[in-house]
Amino acid sequence: MVAAPEPRPLVWVDRVSKHFGEGEARVDALREVSIDIYPGQVVALLGPSGSGKTTLLNVIGCILDPSSGSMELDGEKVLESGHWTRSNLRQLRLDKIGFIFQAHNLIPFLDATDNVALVLQLAGADATTARSRAMELLDYLEVGHRRSAMPAKLSGGEAQRVAIARALANRPRIILADEPTAALDSKRAGIVMDLLRKVAVDQEAAIIAVTHDEKIFDRFDRIFSLRDGRLDEGGAVTS
Amino acid sequence: MNLAYRDIRHSLGRFLLTCVGLGLLLGVVLAMIGIYRGLVVDALTIARAPAVDLWVVEANTRGPFAEASRIPGDIREAVARMADVTAAGSITYQTVEIEHGGDKLRLYVIGYELTRPGGPPQIAEGREIARSHYEMVADKSAGLTLGDRIRLGRHVFTVVGLTRHQVNSGGDPAVYITLPDAQKLQFDLAPPAARVELARGTGGSSRDTVNAVVARLHANASPEAVADTVHRWKHLSAITQEAQEFILTRSLVDRARRQIGLFTSLLLVVSAVIIALIIYTMTMEKLKQIATLKLIGAPDRTIIGMIVQQALALGFIGFAIGAALIVNIKDYFPRRVVLEPDNVMILGLIVFAVCLVASGLGVRAALKVDPATALGG
Lengths: 239, 377
Ligand SMILES: Nc1ncnc2c1ncn2[C@@H]1O[C@H](COP(=O)(O)OP(=O)(O)OP(=O)(O)O)[C@@H](O)[C@H]1O
Ligand SMILES: [Mg+2]
Description:
The structure holds two protein chains of two kinds. By secondary structure, chain A is α/β, with parallel strands linked by helices. Chain A has helices spanning 53-60, 89-96, 112-122, 127-140, 156-168, 186-202; strands at residues 11-20, 27-37, 42-46, 68-73, 76-80, 83-84, 97-100, 174-178, 206-210, 222-227, 230-233.
């Protein structure tokens, strides 16, 4: 069930550390974390609360400055000894990274279609193309029938699928998900995981998902666990 | 897609309610500006009505409005004979209080010579005074109608014509009667002792006194030069129209003007603070969405655009509501509210600027938002 590793990892993290505060108040959220993830892999990130899972996702998503370490995303060097080597991280996020949140975080004043179309337009698609691609995606995620609904009118599972459609819109090769199934029942959680697997295969993407949900552990190719900022592969499947 | 518009459409009722609230506030600001302008215009109305270049008044006074002035009626002939003077007329001004229809009515009675400068500038209804006695032209603001019969002193006058917006600096409506009628009225209303003196012709004054003589000059004559000549007659002062208007705005209504001016500035500051608060709050409510937008890769200009556009829409709609409100109710104010397009435009520009500055505050807050806050956990 493990996809054959390519020679080049999609996500390559080398001895990244991150600490918050200094002196007495210093918290080491990540300690020399190294990880490499290949196209097609669906990876779980486990660990007790406060172990640094969100911090690691934020660093890989280029929204948090690490204290030290190096990083390559999709073959491009983005971090070298704790310093960003690429200036436009926003464009990088837009092109390469999709985020799925625990709370769906849809824009409340846009309907389902436009929530997805927005990221397509931000990436340069014209309005018509964006909308039709958005509708395709919603169909693909089986929420096409709710395409004109406002987020407040969607059920938790529907909203989460719209959010996934949005994360997938620009065909990112790296998808970061922070507890994507926490708000869903186990049946819905299974559907979402199947979807992510499908995306990983179809788009040759890497998917990193933080989860506490033991029911879905068997759906991951690899499982990493964090404890006090240190990462181990395999690790305890209890958090 | 336009995020500002989508957000507004999504919570349209609330946005419009905010606009109406802001509109009422801006309406009050506009009303104050209008009242302020109205005060100045009212102060000048009576002085502008005769359309003259020179006011001849009692020596060492700044009459007839700012200070009392009494001069002999025959001065008019002397003034009329001067070089450069094309027309001259005697005028009296007095405030009387009468009973009319059970109400007290304060009137500003202007006596003028029928064929000379000093009469009503424009008749809105009816006609000018045609007979030399007991006819009057009244301002509409007095609430009189054509044909009304009004007792002034010992005589009953018939309203034959109506003017519009002719009030003195205190807001009392003007009524025009002939000079002889006005002089008789002044005599009738004078204290008994003075009346006895006047009747005897003693005490140095006669019944033929007026408050001012007004004069029109040739188009290319210098009012200052003519005023100088008059001045040299010692017992008289002469004030050019320009100086008269200056006296009226600077000394007569100056305090009221400053009072309202200060209050208007305060209102403007309050409005600015409220606009800033509204826009700041609007932004703070969207911080989570802004973080999400940043996270999914929206450029700063998309976010700035959303905030600034909403701020401007709020300001524009609020201002339009306020302006529409005041334009529609301004004539119901007891005193004149004058809204010149330039006043309205300047307030519009101020609101525009305030909105921009206020959205600057919101933008600052929005740009500081860490996209990571969207992830949570
Ligand atoms: N902005 C910050 N400032 C200071 N300390 C922080 C900050 N963000 C995280 N931390 C600390 O870093 C450590 C790791 O936090 P992180 O959010 O990555 O944990 P987590 O594994 O995601 O926990 P949870 O399962 O509760 O979401 C925690 O001790 C946390 O208190
Ligand atoms: Mg977390």
